[in-house]
Amino acid sequence: MSDFLSSGWSVYIAAVTLFGLVACLWLLLVASRRKVMANDNSTGHVWDEDLRELNNPLPRWWMVLFVITVVFALGYLVLYPGLGSHEGRLGWTSTGQYQAEQKQAEAEMSAVYARYTSLDAEALARDPKAMGIGERLFINNCAACHGSDARGSKGFPNLTDGDWLHGGSFDKIKETITKGRVGVMPPMAAAVGGSEEVKQVANYVLSLSGSPHNSLAAQLGRSKFTACAACHGAKGEGNQAVGAPNLSDKIWLHGWGEDAIVSIVTQGKTNVMPAQEGRLTPAQIHVLGAYVWSLSHPTMTAAR
């Protein structure tokens, strides 16, 4: 109800609710006063020759149950929110209950995570139980984007290789999970010069990784790559301080080939890794970070 600028809608909802309950009581009162008719109490409707419809009043015990239902509804509306903006005498809210359940769950799980918070990534990677917890956390919170095998897909990084936009250390992984990341590649077509120059730069970028390219266009694009070097470096090896990808390897996050590179240079690209600090506790992030770290360190995983 807080979304509305006035209390009119709240009053309307409360009035309709109370009117409905009063109407139910009135109908029950009217029905309770009905008497059995002097004749056979039949409505005159007959089916299958001898099946007659009677017009008897409701049984008293049934009427009592209906009254109890209405009284219960009134009591509920006094104790809990339901009458427009009325908060209820108990002050209950779904948000408050959710937060209380979250705190209870965190308190119960704190004992489980307590043994892991002091361990580093290597020690956790050797602990099967810790990795089991980390895997479940990953499936529940990360697999939707990175895949259940953590190999990612177009636009979502592969977490099992050694290619990291912001660094693959244990601390950097935990930082990324906690705070999230926003990667922005601005449109660079104007800075490069034009559509033809963008193609030349694209071929030069392809040449950095030894990918098939037009060598003449690549030579022409080399001088124009200076507009990109501020982020990707003079040799295109990337810059983890700003999350700029390494263009000299053969790992392509948003697609490979001249057309894909031209599209990114022309239109730019924005990628968002949402922060998880509101969903996971620091202890959970610690274990999850170790699991993600272990994916790109198979020798440590194999030692478990």
From TrEMBL:
Its cofactor is heme c. Gene3D superfamilies: 6.10.280.130, Cytochrome c-like domain. The chain crosses the membrane at residues 12-31, 61-80. GO terms for biological process: oxidative phosphorylation; proton transmembrane transport. Residues 129-209, 216-296 form the Cytochrome c domain. It holds the Pfam family FixP_N. It is found in: Cell inner membrane. Its main location: membrane. Heme c 1 binds at C142, C145, H146, M273. It comes from the Bacteria. GO terms for molecular function: electron transfer activity; heme binding; iron ion binding; oxidoreductase activity. Pathway: Energy metabolism; oxidative phosphorylation. Keywords: Cell inner membrane, Cell membrane, Electron transport, Heme, Hydrogen ion transport, Ion transport, Iron, Membrane, Metal-binding, Oxidoreductase, Repeat, Respiratory chain, Transmembrane, Transmembrane helix, Transport. Binds 2 heme C groups per subunit. One of its GO terms (cellular component) is plasma membrane. Heme c 2 binds at M185, C228, C231, H232. C-type cytochrome. Part of the cbb3-type cytochrome c oxidase complex. Component of the cbb3-type cytochrome c oxidase. Belongs to the CcoP / FixP family. NCBIfam families: ccoP. This is Cbb3-type cytochrome c oxidase subunit. It comes from Piscinibacter sakaiensis.
